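note to self — DONT lose this again. spent like an hour looking for the file last time. sequence + predicted structure for the chain T wanted, 97 res
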Amino acid sequence: MQIINHIIMKDGQAYIERKPHLKAEMVARMVVDGDHSVEDVMAHYDLTAAEVHAALAYYYDNQAQLDAEYEQTLAEIRANAMTLEKFKEKIAKESRS
């Protein structure tokens, strides 16, 4: 029996080995956060069941750290997002110039 590793690490990030541009966390979050089935994710990314389950295993092995980083990123996005009010202010300033 041969053990196959479906995850590779590159620059501190986990990727699907056969698709080195595809982050394992993104694959896992489709199942964990996105309410998609393993089969849906397989079809969406053209992955095998083993690749999706490897991404899930990576996620669950590193869940605390990945979730903390994810929440921090979401907080930064929210803090830097342009609200409608900010957009109106920007347009008003530009029109006065």
